[in-house]
Design a protein that fits this description.
The complex is a heterodimer of chains A (about 425) and B (about 280). With about 425 residues, chain A is α/β, with parallel strands linked by helices. Chain A is built from 19 helices and ten strands. Chain A has helices at about 5-20, 35-40, 45-50, 60-75, 90-95, 115-120, 145-150, 160-170, 190-200, 220-235, 245-250, 265-270, 310-320, 325-335, 345-350, 350-355, 360-370, 395-410, 415-430; strands spanning about 25-30, 55-60, 80-85, 125, 125-130, 130-145, 180, 255-260, 280-285, 300-305. Chain B is mainly alpha-helical and about 280 residues long. Chain B has a domain at about 65-230: MetI-like fold. Chain B is globular. The chains are: A alpha/beta (about 425), B mainly alpha (about 280). The interface between A and B is large, with 45 and 32 residues. Chain A: Pfam families: SBP_bac_1 (PF01547).
Amino acid sequence: MTLFSRALLGATALTLVASPALAEKLTIATVNNGDMIRMQKLADDFTAKNPDIELEWLTMEENVLRQRVTTDIATKGGQFDVMTIGTYEVPIWGKQGWLVSLNDLPAEYDVDDILPAIRGGLTIDGELYAAPFYGESSMVMYRKDLMEKAGLEMPDAPTWEFIGKAARAMTDKDNEVYGVCLRGKAGWGENMAFLTATANSFGARWFDENWAPQFDSEAWKNALTFYLDLMEDAGPPGASSNGFNENLSLFQTGKCGMWIDATVAASFVTNPADSTVADQVGFALAPDNGLGKRGNWLWAWSLAIPAGTQKEEAAKKFIDWATSKEYLELVAEKEGWANVPPGTRTSLYENPEYQKVPFAKMTLDSINSADPTNPTVDPVPYVGVQFVAIPEFQGIATAVGQAFAAALAGNVTADEALANAQAITERTMKKSGYIK
Amino acid sequence: MARRVSNQRKFVVTLIAWAIGLTIFFPILWTILTSFKTEAEAIASPPSFLLFDWTLENYSEVNERSDYFLHFMNSVIISLGSTLLGLAIAIPAAWSMAFVPGKRTKDILMWMLSTKMLPPVGVLIPIYLLFRDFGLLDTRLGLVIVLTLINLPIIVWMLFTYFKEIPGEILEAARMDGATLWNEVVHVLTPMAVPGIASTLLLNVILAWNEAFWTLNLTAAKAAPLTAFIASYSSPEGLFYAKLSAASTLAIAPILILGWFSQKQLVRGLTFGAVK
């Protein structure tokens, strides 16, 4: 063998050894919840179909993820190729030109199959900026046995009046059973998600058409007073510290008669491995006050590509895979239909197998009854059901959430909390130039 | 003459010390116990202390989901690297301030400490932009630099306190014998200050190991240390306490072991100068 042949052979061998390193590496930032972790576990299916793409995961808690990806995208840090973001971020970031449009996903992706309410929240001026991985609304989860004991029957679409009556009737504080568990922990995505959606059903709104804050309205007073009275009479102690997980623990251990929260909780409370009341859970739509709006929200964790990534094509392939109909079937095959990411595709809810899942219909009905582009009884200049899609909202709503949590803890009255909320919101809106 | 202490008093003091110790240790103990429970048992009310079905399921899941060794190595490199680099800068600084103080030495010391009073988030964006431009995002080197800068005031302060205890006459004698500045610092001062340097090193390794703002914000998948590993198990929706406890136990185990074996130096470091 000549020196040249040896060199050629050596170079070929080196190329073969080095070839896996040439695979394109996608860094995916995602939130730590069951559906996302499942996606990570099933990602071998994607890499098997796309051997030229490697996946690198960064899983974070929701607030850490939000801070991390916001910093990165705002500074064009370029750390991530695919980001998991919520319905709040998509309209703001899309308008800023920070996200890559997904309008050119292949025809087989069937973008028209995405639930219209969810798709509407992710589309700006006709451009789809994120593909929904799972969608959720909120609904009433209740204990059938306690409802029966109280001599009541839960309608499919209850009113707030019924919820108040049922909660008080189900409460048995001596035995640590509380009629209703609601979010009280301060935060724009915590108590304010619940209270904003609830306020919508009482006819309240954050701003009028000219961006003037509305916490001094009668509707807000009615909504907050109702919530505080209900929690005083039928809520668990220390409710101002309770968020989703705290209420989930209370419900799963049999301490709540009703829980109004994210539809995604349905799979947790009906799972006999974790829930002591799994076989006693019923579902109903979020309550209303007869004003045409229900107190349910709309949210989707979605996958988006930051503008400026060098790996746009590979990132699109991944998003196509993770939010496709085939992925839903893959999850169903490996983990069962109850574990399929809910709330994204019409075809899923037409599937007879999925229709057998006890919470499927109520989840779909809840999602369909929320309209992010028309969230309130009176007209508003913003998009978003349980949030207002403006950059200032996170800061304002967290401060307002603290005022309302203080009222729930009994430190201030409802009137004081509302006056405080009005002052906080007015100050920020003036500073930001929305109002003079 | 030493004061005689009655047995009764000794017993009471010992009892109080144990009570305080156990109270401080209880959250760690509870974390360790929770890591062996199922998610349902982790939230059970009333909680069970020892009588539950012990399981290794959480450790198995954590091991399956995350690359513990990568995070562990990142933590080791970042905490040791930043501490050693900090010591290399702080020893000469503390020497000059302890043995050749100027008019403004006290002011400089206070100024250095005052940098610790700024909330880190206040400089997140400038640091992030610098890191982006120098290609330091998600690198161990970047974190070594930033953690060195953060802990430097504490290292200088601690070493300054130790060096002040060393009589300046010894260094003068070395100089009289013809020692150069380098020899004076390396061969005379440093050996005498070894216990102090060791305490400073240990304390700063712990501080760097536990740092959870910059390590979360400046890393992604490659340089993320154990703080990011723990944070990835906290969840806004769904039960996670048992898995989070398993991840936390794995993350704190190395530093607990280090602390156990070096408790003498740590206590000396923390109480140095307190009793004279």
